[in-house]
Structures are given as C-alpha cells and as structure tokens.
Amino acid sequence: MCHQSVSLAARYLEEHGIATAVLGCARDIVEHCGVPRFVFSDFPLGNAAGRPFDEDSQRLTLDLALGLLESARTPRTTVQSPLAWSEDPGWKADFCDLSRIPRSEVAARRSDFEAQKERAREVSR
C-alpha cells in the first residue's frame, strides 16, 4: 500500500481516538504527512514489516511498533529499526534499476509476477 495513503489513514484514525503506529520504508513521505508514531525500516519498498520469510525480523519490527505505541510522548515520533537489509549499502543503487538487470531476467520476473496475480485472482473468486 502507498506510504502516503497509510499515513493519511493513520492521521484520520488518530483524530478519531484510535492510536496508530505506521511501519514504512519511505521516511520522507511518512514524516512529511506527520503521523504521530512511525517505525522506519531502511529496507526496499514493500518490506516495512521485516525481511521476507524472516520471522525474527518481522517480530522485532512488530515489537518496535507496539513499544512505540506505549512509549511515544510527543507527536511525530520516529523510531528507526536497527536492522539492515544488507551489509553492503549498494542494494539501494541496484534496487529496481532495470538497466542493471539482464532483459531476460526482467522478462522472467514479470512473467512470475503476472502468474502470482492470476493465482490471487483465482483464489479470491
């Protein structure tokens, strides 16, 4: 889901008495929207809750969010996850840069993604 949409929904919920903690990877967007509590993970977009298939990183992220709900004393409190996506920060330059991926690999990934979407459509019918 879009960081801006989640942030605006969180602000709406907060205005109506429901406490929120936003998990996100786009710090600039979320902080610009002014959410009350934000757990920032310096991970690729789509991975705000932790590394895929890594329950320990996901549990740590959830614990950070729940702790933030209890501990934040001022609006716009941001906590940065201590986790790193990779020891090499070069992933930021490579992530989603299609010019760095062979065309055949891009085509294979696109085909796989389309197949996943079709399976999801079949399940939801």
Instruction: Report the count of strand segments.
Output: 3
| Tally of contiguous helical segments | 5
Oligomer: single chain
How would you write the strand order of the largest sheet? Answer: 1-2-3
Shape: globular
Largest sheet: 3 strands, parallel
Question: How would you characterize the overall build of this protein?
Answer:
- The protein has helices spanning 3-15, 27-33, 55-71, 91-94, 103-124; strands spanning 22-24, 37-40, 77-80.
- Strand 2, helix 3 and strand 3 form a beta-alpha-beta unit.
- The chain has a three-stranded parallel β-sheet, with helices on both faces.
- It is globular.
- The chain is built from five helices and three strands.
- It has 125 residues and is mainly alpha-helical.
List keywords for this structure.
mainly alpha, 3 strands, 3-stranded parallel beta sheet, 50% helix, 125 residues, 9% strand, globular
Helices, strands, pairings?
Blueprint (H helix, E strand, L loop, with lengths): L2 H13 L6 E3 L2 H7 L3 E4 L14 H17 L5 E4 L10 H4 L8 H22 L1
Parallel strand pairs: 1-2, 2-3
